[in-house]
C-alpha cells in the first residue's frame, strides 16, 4: 500500500500558497496601467477653454439670440473671417430675459430663463472654438434692468407704482426691474461669470439704467433710494459689477445712450457721463444718428448727417472724459440700419467710421437689430 503523506503535504503547501496570494491581492493597490503608481479617480470635467486677448483695435458686430441659434451665426463668422471685423457681440441674456444656453446659475434655472430653445453646449463650444481659431474675439452681451421674465417672477424686485404698490408697467405692458436692488445686478454678474467660464473674453452689460419714460417720475416709487439720485445708484451698481469682473481678469464694457456724451443731466435714466465713465473698462455710447432729435448739434435732421452727428458726439465725449483720470476708452456703436430718411448703406456707415477715426477713435461696433450688415462698407481682412 502506497503512503498518502506526500499528497497531504502537497495539498497543504498549495492551500498556504493560495491564502498568501489572496492576502496579497487584497492589500495590493489597484493597478493604473503604469508601474509603481496608485490609481486615482479620473476627472472627466473638460478643461476650461483658453481665453482670447481683447484686440487693441476692436471692430465688432452684434449677433442677436436668433442669429446665434441659426445659420446666420456661421455667416457672420464668415464675414469676420473675410473683413476687418475681429469681434462678435453675442446675446447671452437678451431684453426678454432669455438666456442663450443651459445655465447653472440657480436663479436662471429657478425662473426657467434657459428653457426657450437653449443652445446646446456642443454648439456653443463649436462656435467659440471656431471664433478662437480665426482670431475673432467673443463678447457676451447681458441685459440687466430690462428683464420682464425676472421682473414677473420676482415682483419684489420690480419698480413699484405709487398708487397701489403694484408693479409699474412700461409702454409695452411689461414690468421693469428696479435698479436699486443689488440682487438684479448680482444675477447679471453671476451670468457673466458663467459666460467667462464658457470662454467669452469680455462681458458687455446693456440696459444699465432706469426706464426712459417721463411718466416714471410721476408714477413710480423707490423705497431703496435713501436720498440717492438715480445717477448715483447706477454709479454704485456699476462699481459692484466692475469689482466682480476684475476678480475674473476680464474687461467689462457698458452700453449707454448716445446723447449722454453731450447731455449734462442723467437724462432721467441714471446715466450721467461723469458718473459712469470711470466704472467700466470700456464705455460704448449708442450714437445712432436716427436717435437724435431734429435740431441737435444745429442739424435739422441728424440722421441725414451721420458724419457731423458722430463728430459732435465724440468730440463732446472726449471733452467730458478729459478731466477724469480713470475714464474708460470710448468704443461707439454705429448705425447699420434704416430708421427714417435717408436709407442707410455703405456711404452712411463709412461716414460714421470716418468721424470716429478723425477723432482718434479707431474701434467701433455695428448694430443691426436683425444682425444683417452692410458688408460692402467693411474693409477686407489684412491679418489679425
Helix content: 25-40%
Q: So, the CATH homologous superfamily?
A: Glycosidases
Our Rg estimate from Cα atoms comes to: 29 Å
Q: Identify the strand order in the major beta sheet.
A: 8-7-5-3-2-1-10-9
Domain unit count: 1
CATH class annotation: Alpha Beta
N-to-C order of helices and strands: HEHHEHHEHEHEHEHEHEHEHE
Structural class: alpha/beta
Average pLDDT metric: 90
How many helical elements? 12
State the CATH architecture.
Alpha-Beta Barrel
Based on DSSP secondary structure assignment, what is the total number of beta strands?
10
Low-confidence segments? 1-39
Write up what this structure looks like.
There is one protein chain. The protein has 384 residues and is of the alpha/beta class. The protein has a single domain, classed as TIM Barrel (Alpha-Beta Barrel). Helices cover 35% and strands 12% of the residues. The chain has 12 helices and 10 strands. The chain is globular.
Amino acid at each position: 500500500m502506497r503512503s498518502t503523506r506526500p499528497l497531504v503535504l502537497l495539498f497543504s503547501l498549495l492551500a498556504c500558497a493560495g491564502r498568501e496570494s489572496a492576502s496579497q491581492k487584497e492589500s495590493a493597490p489597484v493597478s493604473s496601467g503604469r508601474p509603481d503608481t496608485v490609481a486615482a479617480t479620473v476627472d472627466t470635467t473638460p478643461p476650461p477653454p483658453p481665453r482670447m486677448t481683447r484686440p487693441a483695435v476692436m471692430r465688432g458686430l452684434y449677433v442677436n439670440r436668433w442669429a446665434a441659434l441659426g445659420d446666420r451665426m456661421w455667416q457672420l463668422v464668415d464675414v469676420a473671417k473675410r473683413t476687418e471685423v475681429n469681434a462678435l457681440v453675442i446675446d447671452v441674456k437678451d431684453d426678454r430675459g432669455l438666456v442663450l444656453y443651459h445655465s447653472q446659475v440657480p436663479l436662471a434655472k429657478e425662473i426657467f430663463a434657459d428653457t426657450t430653445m437653449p443652445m446646446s453646449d456642443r454648439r456653443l463650444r463649436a462656435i467659440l472654438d471656431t471664433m478662437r481659431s480665426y482670431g475673432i474675439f467673443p463678447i457676451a452681451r447681458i441685459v440687466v434692468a430690462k428683464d420682464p421674465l425676472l421682473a414677473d417672477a420676482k415682483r419684489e424686485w420690480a419698480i413699484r407704482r405709487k398708487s397701489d404698490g403694484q408693479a409699474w408697467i412700461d409702454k409695452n405692458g411689461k414690468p421693469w426691474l428696479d435698479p436699486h436692488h443689488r440682487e438684479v445686478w448680482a444675477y447679471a454678474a453671476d451670468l457673466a461669470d458663467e459666460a467667462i467660464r464658457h470662454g467669452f473674453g469680455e462681458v458687455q452689460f446693456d440696459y444699465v439704467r432706469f426706464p426712459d419714460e417721463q411718466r416714471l417720475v410721476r408714477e413710480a416709487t423707490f423705497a431703496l433710494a435713501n436720498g440717492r439720485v438715480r445717477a448715483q445708484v447706477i454709479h454704485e451698481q456699476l462699481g459692484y459689477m466692475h469689482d466682480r469682473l476684475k476678480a475674473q481678469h476680464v474687461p467689462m464694457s457698458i452700453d449707454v445712450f448716445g446723447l449722454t456724451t453731450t447731455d449734462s443731466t442723467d437724462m432721467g435714466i441714471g446715466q450721467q457721463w461723469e458718473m459712469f465713465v470711470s466704472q467700466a473698462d470700456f464705455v460704448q455710447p449708442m450714437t445712432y444718428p436716427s436717435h437724435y432729435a431734429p435740431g441737435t448739434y444745429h442739424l435739422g435732421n441728424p440722421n441725414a448727417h451721420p458724419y457731423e452727428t458722430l463728430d459732435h458726439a465724440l468730440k463732446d465725449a472726449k471733452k467730458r472724459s478729459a478731466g477724469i483720470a480713470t475714464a474708460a476708452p470710448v468704443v461707439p456703436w454705429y448705425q447699420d440700419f434704416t430708421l427714417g430718411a435717408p436709407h442707410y448703406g455703405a456711404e452712411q456707415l463709412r461716414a460714421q467710421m470716418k468721424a470716429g477715426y478723425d477723432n482718434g477713435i479707431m474701434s467701433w461696433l455695428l448694430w443691426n437689430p436683425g444682425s444683417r450688415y452692410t458688408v460692402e462698407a467693411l474693409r477686407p481682412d489684412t491679418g489679425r
